[in-house]
Amino acid sequence: MREIHWLMNMLTNMDVGIVVFDRQGQVIVWNHFMENHSGISSTEIKEQGSLFDVYPIFKERWLQNKIDSALLLDCEMFVSWEQVPHLFDFAAYRPVTGSATKMYQNITVNALKDASGEASYISMMVYDVSDVAVNKQALEKINRELELSSRTDKLTGLFNRGYWQEKLSEAVQLHARYETAHSLILFDIDHFKRVNDSYGHQAGDEVIRQVADSAAQSARVMDVVGRYGGEEFGIILPETDAEGARVLGERLRQEVETLQIPFEREQLTVTISLGIASLNSSMLDEDKWLQAADEALYQAKEQGRNQVVVHKG
Hints:
The chain has helices at 2-13, 32-38, 42-47, 51-54, 61-73, 130-150, 161-178, 192-199, 201-218, 242-257, 286-302; strands spanning 17-22, 27-30, 77-79, 105-113, 119-128, 182-189, 224-229, 232-238, 261-263, 266-268, 272-278, 308-310. By secondary structure, it is of the alpha+beta class. The chain has 2 domains: 2-137, Beta-Lactamase, CATH 3.30.450; 151-310, Reverse transcriptase/Diguanylate cyclase domain (Alpha-Beta Plaits), CATH 3.30.70. The strands form 3 sheets. A 5-stranded antiparallel beta sheet has the order 2-1-5-4-3. Strands 7-8-6-11-12 form a 5-stranded mixed beta sheet, sandwiched between helices. Helix 8 crosses helix 9 and helix 9 crosses helix 10. It is elongated, with a radius of gyration of 32 Å. It starts with a helix and ends with a strand. The mean pLDDT is 89.
């Protein structure tokens, strides 16, 4: 009896939640861990009737299926924090989990047999894994930020040239496979050297940022906007023919033309020239596609700048 008393005392006070209940949800065991984190005493939980009523999540079909499987198959079932972060709605309390407001839990579900050998009871072990969850989420956030920074231009926030050209290659492959329309806009800032020479590189950087913002706002969600280099930019337009690209390009041209870019006590204005090329059977790779758009951009500059030219090819 003394050993049983010690065993029960250990189970009651261990830093793991222990819950035992019957098929109707009537609680038999509710240890100190559960009392401390739920704010409900063992006596109170037993008097409140079914566990399924106190915690409505227990009525959900997926959890009932796990409980039924544990009883039927006499096997252990699991609920991971990555599947259901907070099966029991407990507050987080560990110092290292300061960013978490609720406790993350792993749950194991087992069937317990009565004296006749029938599996009539369910036990749940509730493990506080908040440290693991918070650390993993923090690492995933860092990895996402690193991935984003590796493909983003620091000055403009647009995609950098390397990532943008990967998307350009993908567009060519999609066109070759499905013959879907894809268009490309290359544009740059007219007389940009004058801005740098007259106002300095800080002014030039601000002009680039403002023009980049206009491009990002003018583009659709599906479009891929990137800084191609210096004051030159590119926009990949999936499922868009030359006329659709011309309309977007003209809208962007007008938007940039009306910009008033504040720098020190000045209001700077700039224009852009744009070249457009749509993929066709003569463009078998991204280099030829880029060349076609670049030729149209060169023509726009030759014709007086601040205009949109569509490549005829």
